[in-house]
């Protein structure tokens, strides 16, 4: 009866019920764990189709269209491709940074006993792929791509594992998430330290000054997102001029976001109870916040209290997660995964040292690095297997670690800027390795798993 009564009291717009019936399944699809991976896969397929079909010339012309943002004599003039990789991807790194901060403060990486195994696994999964790549490309300009096979694509890898949710322990998914997040941190450090242009000390000093302003906002208790956004944009521009890749402004901005609530949980509970009492006392028959100013004031106070008990870190991560997963990353894929495939020179492509270094580094390097690091860690008592898992499942998950799509392609763009042939070979290696890693890792885990009842 209570449910019927509450449904009866909901006020619907004229067409709202019909739209709700249409939108509810779509919303469930959007929030499903595997959706971002499927959408990313679809974007990559579209990019490959555009780069190899009748629209190939138009596709290349479009992604290299110059776009200038100017105010008077000052301006930034870059191609659409660079705007996506240098500016739009800063939002991706902003979300990655917030995930890293949350995991370090209160998540899988906060307890060293739980975090030890995935951290060790992530280190092994970065070092071995880089060494395999260097074995194929130990001299010349091609050597600069050593960081490409170090990265794991969290959306694809976790999405593939989530498809097996009823056949693998939940702790195995948690292990892969922790590993991928530690891997992301490693990739961010690699980009910051090794994939930079000629450094400008002046602009680095300016960047440091604005990062200090962000930290000052944090320590001063400023929780409004607007001041952080304004300073983060200026920080992005300063990093763009400094030679350090500008997307790191996203990570620095994320680490400055406050992770403290304004209200203590007990104070929040008392305040909510007080406001509910005021709402009931102020309400008259057929009243609404539109017609009753007292009700509207109470509702505003309720909203402020709810926002106050949440940390800005949680709130911003929640707000930005879906736009980044469903808009930013697919756009990045469309602009970067368009690889022209020339079948008449396929044998040359498949034997090119850069392609082999990336593909073998991701597929075999991740497997050997993650599995080997976990075996050594367990042998020496560093960390422990996730609850309910077997070592064979860890080995299978390490194959999924070879899915390196987003971050690997991003590092390839940085490492082979101005080297179109090496960039093409690197992207080909990323796509081939990611395809094989996803399929073989999925099949292996499916055979290892037992369907839950």
Explain what you see.
The chain is mostly helical and 453 residues long. The protein folds into two domains: 36-195 and 245-260 and 311-448, Na+/H+ antiporter like domain (Na+/H+ antiporter like fold); 262-310. Strands 1-2 form a two-stranded antiparallel ribbon. The chain contains 19 helices and two strands. Strand 1 (66-71) and strand 2 form a beta hairpin. The chain has helices spanning 2-8, 16-31, 35-52, 56-63, 80-106, 112-136, 154-162, 170-194, 201-219, 225-242, 248-256, 265-282, 293-309, 312-336, 346-350, 353-379, 391-400, 405-415, 420-448, and strands spanning 66-71, 74-79. Helix content is 71%, strand content 3%.
What layout of secondary structure does this protein have?
Blueprint (H helix, E strand, L loop, with lengths): L1 H7 L7 H16 L3 H18 L3 H8 L2 E6 L2 E6 H27 L5 H25 L17 H9 L7 H25 L6 H19 L5 H18 L5 H9 L8 H18 L10 H17 L2 H25 L9 H5 L2 H27 L11 H10 L4 H11 L4 H29 L5
Antiparallel strand pairs: 1-2
